[in-house]
C-alpha cells in the first residue's frame, strides 16, 4: 500500500524548499498542506509542539520536524532515487557538519547584516560572510571530488542544505497594496523563487528606490545580484527568462506570447485606468466610463476564450503572464465593487472572465500575495484622505 506523505509548509520558504527538493529527487508523491507560519493552526501545533515551525513532514501519521533532519529521514526511509547522503561514514559526518555550519553560523550572518546599524558593523559582517564562503569553497572541493555537486554527480544533502542561501541575492522593492508589486510577487511565488521584500513608500521615495529606479522612480523594482529591473510587466518577463524552475509563464508559440503581451499592455494602458475615472463629477461622465469598462471587459472575455482554449486560465491549465497581468488588479477591483455596488466581472455579461476571476482569486498565488479586500478598503480610505491615489 502506498504510504501517506504530507508536507506542512508555505511556498516560497527556503526551509520548505529543501524538503520539496528532496521529495522530488526521490520521486515521492506528497500532499502539500499550506500553513501560515504567522498564524499557527491546531494541525501545526499538534505536529510540531516543541518548535511550532514549518516544515513538518508527516509520514503515515508520524511527524518529522526540522528541515535538515527531514531530508536525512527522507534518505533513510525511501530507497528509490539517488542517495542524498554519501555512503562512507566519514563523508556522511562531513556533510552533516557543513550543513550544521551553514544553518547555525553562516546563514545567521545575513540576518545580522540586515540589522546592522553602522557601516563599520556591516563591513565586519560582510568580511565574516566572505570568510565563511572560503570555508565552504574548501568543503566543496573536498566533498565534490572534482564532480559538479557536493554530492558528486548528483545533487546531495549538502547541495540541498546550501541551496537555501543561493537565492538570497534577489530583492524586491515594493509595497504590498500595489497591484504592480503583487504582479512580481505572484511570478516569484509561481516560480518558487526566494527573495527579500524591502518595504518602500512610493510617495516618500527613499534613496535606495531613487538609486534603483532613477528614471521612473516607481515600485516595483527587482534587484538581482545588484542589478535593477523595473516595470512590473518587464520584471515578470525577466523572471520567466532568468529562471527555468516552475511553470512557464509565457506561451511557447511566438504569436500566442505576443498576444499575451499585447493584452497585458491593453489592460495597463486602457482598461484599468478607466476605474480611476469612475470618480468623475457628473453622472453622464460616470456612465460613459462604465460603458467603456464593460466594452473593454467584452474584449478581454474574447481574449480569454481564445488564449485559455477551454482551460481555466489565460495560460491554460496554469496561471500565466496574462493571468498575472490582469489578476493583480482583482483586489482593487473588489474594492471598487464594494464602494460602488457595481459587479464588474458579471456572470451574465462576461461569464468566462467571471469564472476565471473566481478561480484566480482562490489560487494561493493570489491569496498569499494580495491583501484582503477589507484591508485594501481601509488603505483606500486612509490614502484618499491624504489626496493620493491608493493603487498607483
Ligand atoms: N507601469 C509601472 C507602474 C508602477 C506604479 O505605478 N507604481 C506606483 C505604486 S503602485 C508608484 O511607485 N507610484 C509612485 C509614483 O508614481 O511616483 C509598473 O508596472 O511597474
From TrEMBL:
A Gene Ontology BP annotation from the UniProt entry: toxin catabolic process
Catalytic function, reaction form: RX + glutathione = an S-substituted glutathione + a halide anion + H(+)
PROSITE patterns xref list: GST_CTER, GST_NTER
Official protein name in the record: glutathione transferase
GO molecular function per UniProt: glutathione transferase activity
The UniProt record lists the keyword Lipoprotein: no
Enzyme Commission no: 2.5.1.18
Positions of the GST N-terminal domain: 3-82, 168-247
Organism: Fraxinus pennsylvanica
Family statement drawn from the similarity comment of this UniProt entry: Belongs to the GST superfamily. Tau family.
InterPro entries from the UniProt entry: Glutathione-S-Trfase_C-like (IPR010987), Glutathione-S-Trfase_C_sf (IPR036282), Glutathione_S-Trfase (IPR040079), Glutathione_S-Trfase_N (IPR004045), GST_C (IPR004046), GST_C_Tau (IPR045074), Omega/Tau-like (IPR045073), Thioredoxin-like_sf (IPR036249)
EC category name: transferase
GO cellular component: cytoplasm
Domain GST C-terminal residues, every copy: 88-221, 253-383
